[in-house]
Amino acid sequence: GAAVVSMNWPSRNDAQFGSLVKPGKLNPGRLSSRIPHWIYPLDFLMSQKFITSEEIELPPNLRLVIQRARVRMEILESGSDPRARFELFQRLNTGGSPLSEQEVRTSICVSINPALDKRIENMATHKSFVETTKVSDARLERQFNKELVVRFLVLRNCQYKRGVDVHEYLSNGIVDIFQSKEMKWDAEEKVFNSTFDTLLEALGDNCFRRPKAGGYSGNFSLAAFECSTLALSRMIEQKDKAGAKALKNEYVAMWRDETFQKYSGAGVRGTERLSKLVLPHASEYFS
Fold first, then answer.
1. Which residue of 57, 104, 161, 235 lies most exposed, with the fewest beta carbons within 10 A?
2. Per residue in 232-254, pLDDT tens?
3. Is 0.85 topped by the overall pTM?
4. Cross-strand pairs, 223
5. Which pLDDT score is estimated for 2?
6. Is it the case that residue 13 has pLDDT exceeding 70?
7. 216 phi and psi, to 5 degrees?
8. Angle at which helices 82-92 and 101-112 pack, to 10 degrees?
9. 226-243 exposure pattern, b = at least 16 Cβ within 10 A, e = fewer
10. Which string of b and e fits 142-155 if b means at least 16 CB within 10 Å?
11. How far apart are CA 10 and CA 44, in angstroms?
12. 52-68: per-residue pLDDT in tens?
């Protein structure tokens, strides 16, 4: 594996920095092998130990790559439009270890209303939601549990335009929801909790998987999650809650449906799943 080495960075007030580069610009021509190779000036990193060219042997071609590397910087005013900040964050997040789509959403949601983001986080810890979705530790780190809550909210409250990328739809939708003054959060959370409580009672803790004789099989199905939660939440909202036995029968019938089978597979694009299955047919599977 590669060695991880800490580096120190000069301050803009550091005399060595002034002799090497102009503020905000890296000048490879001034960085010869006879002087320390400062990579980029950042005041808050000065406490770290730095590395010079004398302390580590690098092949000439690699040294040249580092010397000629550029660090991209973008600045937005703190009061700028949330969508502008969101789009910039998405565009910049293209190198290293990219954040998940939901981690990017969370970053902008916190900047809009941290209390509402905390509410989504709390919804993602609701007992029946946790038990029915069974999100793995690896996916929890990528905030997939919060993404499922976002899917629930956006599908119920935001219109989908056919052909729009699903993650773009979710991102724009949750920003609209966070900025809306008409969103009734208490009622929405009550429907959310009741939806997963009902699913757990009727189908058990494997309810978003393929039903088979004596139980369920396969991996978590996003199509089953979207169809089931969207349809059932609307029924609950209309105080038309189905019995556990009837709900289980309808769930099994959904998996046998030709349209569901066609648009719920792993190779189906999210745009097709939403426009040709979830939105037009979810309510038909549960009544």
1. 57
2. 999 998 877 667 789 999 999 99
3. no
4. none
5. 34
6. no
7. -135, 160
8. 150
9. bbbbbbbbbbbbeeeebe
10. bbbbbbbbbbbbbb
11. 9
12. 655 667 788 887 887 78
pLDDT digit string, tens, across residues 23-54? 444 444 443 344 344 444 444 445 555 566 55
Token pair belonging to 169: 């739809």
CA distances from 255 to 201, 211, 236 (A): 19, 8, 22
pLDDT computed for residue 156 by the predictor: 97
Give tens-digit pLDDT for 131-178.
999 999 999 999 999 999 999 999 999 999 999 999 999 999 999 999
Which H or E element spans position 212?
strand 210-212
Which band of pLDDT confidence, cut at 50, 70 and 90, is reported for residue 99? confident
- Going by the DSSP 8-state scheme, the letter that residue 278 receives in this structure is I
* Angstrom distance (rounded) from CA 154 to CA 177: 8
38's CB contacts (< 8 A; 6+ apart) are: 9, 10, 16, 17, 20, 21, 31, 50
For residue 6, the tally of other CB atoms under 10 A from its CB is: 9
Bridge partners of residue 204, in order along the sequence: none
Three-state SS string across the chain, please?
CCCCCCCCCCCCCCHHHHHHCCCCCCCHHHCCCCCCCCCCCCHHHCCCCCCCCCCCCCCHHHHHHHHHCCCCCCCCCCCCCHHHHHHHHHHHCCCCCCCCHHHHHHHHHHHHCHHHHHHHHHHCCCHHHHHHHCCCHHHHHCCHHHHHHHHHHHHHHCCCCCCCCHHHHHHHHHHHHHHCCCCCHHHHHHHHHHHHHHHHHHHCCCCCCEEECCEEECCCCHHHHHHHHHHHHHHHHCCCCCCHHHHHHHHHHHHHCHHHHHHCCCCCCHHHHHHHHHHHHHHHHCC
d(CA 139, CA 53): 40
Q: What is the C-alpha separation between 186 and 64, in angstroms, rounded?
A: 58
